[in-house]
Every structure is written in structure tokens, then in C-alpha cells.
Amino acid sequence: MKPKKLTINEIAEMARVSKGTVSKILNNKPGISQDTRRRVMDIVGHLDYFPNSAAQALAYQRTNNIGLVIPHEAGISLAGSYWSALITAIAQTAAGQNYNLMLLTPHIEGDLEQVYDSVLRSHKVDGLIIGAELVDKRSLSRIVLADLPLVMVGQNSEFHHYFVDINNHRAAYQMTEHMIECGKRHPAFISGPLEYQYNRERVQGFTDALAAKGISGATGAVEAYDTHQIQGEVLRLLRDNPGIDSLFIGAGGEFMLDVIDQLRRNHINFTHFGLAVFDDYPYLNFLNPRLTAVHQPIHEMGVAATTMLMKLIQNQSLDHPSEIIETHIVVRGSCGEPTT
Amino acid sequence: MKPKKLTINEIAEMARVSKGTVSKILNNKPGISQDTRRRVMDIVGHLDYFPNSAAQALAYQRTNNIGLVIPHEAGISLAGSYWSALITAIAQTAAGQNYNLMLLTPHIEGDLEQVYDSVLRSHKVDGLIIGAELVDKRSLSRIVLADLPLVMVGQNSEFHHYFVDINNHRAAYQMTEHMIECGKRHPAFISGPLEYQYNRERVQGFTDALAAKGISGATGAVEAYDTHQIQGEVLRLLRDNPGIDSLFIGAGGEFMLDVIDQLRRNHINFTHFGLAVFDDYPYLNFLNPRLTAVHQPIHEMGVAATTMLMKLIQNQSLDHPSEIIETHIVVRGSCGEPTT
DNA sequence: CTGAAAGCGCTTACAG
DNA sequence: CTGAAAGCGCTTACAG
Fold first, then answer.
1. What is the pTM of this model?
2. Residue range A1-21: average pLDDT?
3. Which residues pair with A323 in a beta bridge?
């Protein structure tokens, strides 16, 4: 014998008013006497009544949910903390506006299209946040065509749309300057796959900074985030450029760890050989060497993306169709200290 | 000029049948002619129609959503990768059964009660997964009373209910045996706050293993996960027990890092001093010393919890009201190698 | 095999 | 200030 379910009808009955009146009171509409308002609110409070959200969604034509698409491997990869930070930032910000976060992930790897499709057509969410690297042009345009508000985290070179991002070029540029200020004179850069726009920008930032200082450097890029490939490329860089005195690792996570692992195998002496990395993690404080890193404010990115999406959903005008969040460098010594 | 919205009415109209018929076809009900079935499915396929989920939720009285409560600090703490792994495991498993995962988090820290309450009463989800340490007895009983299926990850000593967990006692016991097999003869254990059941069980596992081998050890526990407290307790352990030759760190994340940090400050020589830790992380491969750790299969726990919840939601009988997932030890050498 | 109608729990003009 | 009624987009007995 379960307790009878509590709907607006029960409240109306108990308060001896129509359910329309109860609805108006709950939604703070004007034109209700103080007396009945109090009477109804009293009952609502005591019974701890909340309106059924499916019914509200149907009536209002909005769900008060937003969706975040996460990749299949977020759980097992080292990038887990990245996703975790993004997710909680989004969920919290959304919660502040009475929105809930729905996680969208394919059951089997890949196959994101189907996820978009069903969620989009079934109106499960009022808007979507997607990592730019997680979508192809086709899926994106379908979403936009379906008139579903969308904000990307990062940029997609194939598809321009609302986004939140960092300035990859500038961040790489600054870090390269830092390396030079630390006395490095022949730095190298190892990049992730150049198919990703952010990697191309980071390489460019590196080479531009070198050019500005009239310093020559070496660059290398892998074709895929794959341990074997990565370590092979590190080896090539070391062999082909025996004079390099430092390495700027263009991405964090396992990419970084694979690189460092390979450097160790080659008995690189980190006391002299400088190291810098793009992407900061709490555990870097405990790694040896203590890596100087570009810090991406992930939490702020999540907040910014969510705020932006909320405005789009509510048809508010956006000051800017995109937002660039500032990065900063966390100096830990792996590249020495600036001598200037 | 947005495209007119697509509902079951439009489909019915185009196929020249009633919407009831369309509904039956979409839900694979019997008693429909092959002919109209094909005709309708054709249109549905071409127009890429999906039923509105709010309407379905209202009619079916279920949402096809499950909720996961995550703590406020999941995003910024080192435990981020733990949550990330749990979240993706749950989301994927749920997706396989056509369920979506909704993330529940308070807007401001603490204040979980309100989160439960609104979500629960507004029928946003059909079931809930909660970390055992994240709830007080009162909230839990309200959920259960409201008849909302619930599975906990971990156990709550104040409230017995469906749960998925590891065997903390056995895991600690095994690791302690490993330490002894590695030749350690005076090990110490440092535990997180004893108010948490899992910490009490781990301490017990440690002392039981020692007792079985007739070996004496030292134990210490902090009262809160706080850097200062933790490092103070490490110091106390070292001072009060000058003879200890190894330390079993009872929890991972920043707790572990704080402990190691303190050991380093005290110039502990990790070549001789053994180290073991409860909780495994990908980055442990890159820490110095390379920590031997108890590995919790987080992904499997997420899968198990979700599977269990699904059964509860569908009123299927459970073989067991709880599930214990096996842990294993990842030997990395910080404690030496077994000599037996 | 097919359709008309009631119902799921809300909101919102509209009439009084 | 209040209520009756229609509508949101589905499903499901029920009648034919």
C-alpha cells in the first residue's frame, strides 16, 4: 500500500480551490487574494509538494534540462579529472538557474550521431554543450537546424558556432617566452595530432614566439594519441636535434606521461633539460620533475559555457558569440626560473 | 520561421491513420496490418521522428532517467578521476537500457537535502545512485519512503539498503599480507577519519592480518581529511614508532599525496621504507616511488550499481540485495617484491 | 484491424 | 479574485 500520489489536484482539493488557482499561486502570478495564497502555500509546504516535471515540461514546452555530450573514454583515461571538473562546473551553474544536467554518452563507443538524434528529437534537453573535438560537421549542423541551442567547449574549425575556449596560440606563445627567459636556447615542441585545431594553434604559438626572439627550435607532431607513436616521435626529436635543451609538451594527460616516460628511458637529465607542458593537473605537484604548466581554468570554462547556453535558451542577447578564458602559467621549476 | 514541430499528429495525418494507430506501431503492439505498419514506419524513418519524452513520461509515469548525486567538490579534487570513471560507467550502462543519466548536485556546497527533495517529488528520475558517504540517515529514509528505487555505492553504517561495495577489510588484509611477504616486520597504517565505515574496516583488516602473523604494528587515524591534520599524524606515527619499516596509506587522492609529501620532508628513504596505498590511479605509474596499490574496479562498480538499479526500477527480483566487487593489488615495487 | 475518447499532471487564456 | 475548459503530446482500454 503505497501513499497516494500527490498532484496539484490533491492540493486544490484540500485547499478547496481549483487547480488553476493553485498553479497560479505556485507560479507567483498576480491576482490572488492574500488569504487563499497563504492557505495554499501552507498545504504545499506541509505536504512538501513539487509539481511533476514531465507535466510541466509538456505544458511549458521546455524541460529545464541541458545536455552534455561526453566521450566514451572519459572514465578510463587520465583526462578523467578534466571531464569531472567540467561536468561539476556545468552541473552547479545549471543548478543555480534551476536546470539539471543530463549526460549524453553512447552505449557503445563512437556512434555519437544516434545519441544526438534521439535526444534532440525527443526534446530531452533545452540545450547542449559539446566538446568541439567530439563532433563532426554533419551532426553539428543537424543540431543547429533543429533549432537546439548549442555551445561548444573549444573550437571546431569545420563549424563556427557559439563557443568557449582558451587562446591556445597565446598560451603557447607565453610559455615559450618563459622557456626562453629561463635561458633555453634550443627548445623543441611535441604536438598532438594536427587535425585538431588546438594543436595547430599551439604549434603556431611556439614557432611565433621563437621567431620573435630570433631563436630556432624543433617541432614534431604525432598522428594519433597512441603511446607507441608518441614515444617514437620523442625519440626522433631527440635524435634529429641533438642540441635541444628543452621540450614543450603540447598536451597533458597520457600524452604527457608517455613523453616523460620516454625521456626517462633516454636518461634525460631534468636538472639541465627544461620541460614545460600544456595542461595542468593537481598531481603535477607530486611528479618528478615538477612540471611548469599552462593552466586551463576548466571550471571557469564550464561556468562560461553554461551561462552562455542559458542565455541562448532564454533568447537573451549575447554580448559575444564566444568567450575566451584566460590561461596562466604555473611555474614549478621543471624549466628553471626566469633569469630576467 | 522555424520548421513546424513534428508530433505524432503530423505523422498520423501524413499516413492517414489515427494517432492511436501510430502509437501502437511505434510501440510494437500487435494487431496492426503489415501494410499500414510499413507505411507509417516509412514516414517515421524519413522524417526522423522521435516521440516527445515529456509526453511519454507523463503517460507512462516514468521518465527513463536515473539520477546520480555528486558532491560539490568532485570537480576540483584529485578524486575527480574517480567520479569521472563512475559517471561514465553509469551513463553508458544506463544508455544501454535506454535510460539517461541526470546529474544531481547542489548549487551551493552542502545542502544536499533540498536536491533530493525537489528531484524526488518532481519525479525527475526513476531511481537514484548515491555515494554512501554523501548521505545522512534522514535523507535516505525520505527517499526510501517516497518509494524511489535507490542503490548506494559503498555502505552506510547508519542505513542498510541496496548497495555495491568492495570488501574493504579483505583488501586491507591482503595488502598487509603482501607487505609482510615483502619482508616488512613493523608496518604502520594511517587511516582517514574513523567516522567513515570504510576506514574502520580497513584498519581492522590491517590489524587482523598482523595478528594472524603475530606481528606488531602501529596505527594512526586523522579526524578529518585536512592537510595539516594528515601531516601532523604522519609525524606522530614516525616519532612514536621509530622502528616502523613501512607505511600503508589508508586512502588515495590528496590524502595519499599529503602523506607522501610529509614522508619526503622527513627524508624517508623509499628504497628501504615500504609504502602501500589504498586506491589506484593511472598516474601512480609516474610517481616516485612507484606505489603498490589496492585497485578498486570503479567501472565495474558503476556498471553493477546501474544494473541493480535498473532491476529495482523494473520490479525485477534481485538475486542479492548487495554486491561486492573484487579488488586486486597492483604491485609496483614501492613495497618491494614478495620474497616467498 | 482501426479510431474516438479519456487520462497522465500541469499551464493559461478566457469568462464571470 | 476564482474557476471551467482547452491544450501540451503521448498511451491505452474500449467499441466497432
1. 0.92
2. 85
3. A164
**Out of A85, A123, A257, closest to residue B80 by CB:** A85
More confident residue, A140 or A224: A224
Q: Which domains does chain A have, with CATH numbers?
A: 8-51 (1.10.260.40), 65-166+298-326 (3.40.50.2300), 168-297 (3.40.50.2300)
Tell me the per-residue pLDDT of B40-74, one tens digit each, with 9 for 90 and over.
Answer: 999 999 999 999 999 999 999 999 999 999 888 77
Give the residue carrying C-alpha cell 564566444. A322
Tell me the sheet residues that pair with B165: B324
What residues have CB less than 8 Å from A237, skipping those under 6 apart? A188, A190, A218, A220, A244, A247
Indicate the residue of A107, A124, A298 with minimum beta-carbon distance to B95.
Answer: A107
Across chain A, mean pLDDT equals: 90
What 3-state class would DSSP assign to A9? helix
Q: What pairs with residue B188 in β-bridges?
A: B218, B247
Cα–chain-centroid distance for residue A52?
A: 31
Under the phi-then-psi rule, with left for phi > 0, alpha for psi from -120 to 50, and beta for the rest, what region is A208? alpha
Give the mean model confidence (pLDDT) for residues B159-172. Answer: 94
Look-up of cell digits 547542449: A128
CA-atom Rg of chain B in angstroms: 26
Check CB contact of B118 with chain A, cutoff 8 Å: yes
Is B95 in Cβ contact with A100 (below 8 Å)? no
Question: B227 in contact with A at a CB cutoff of 8 Å?
Answer: no
Check CB contact of A104 with chain B, cutoff 8 Å.
yes
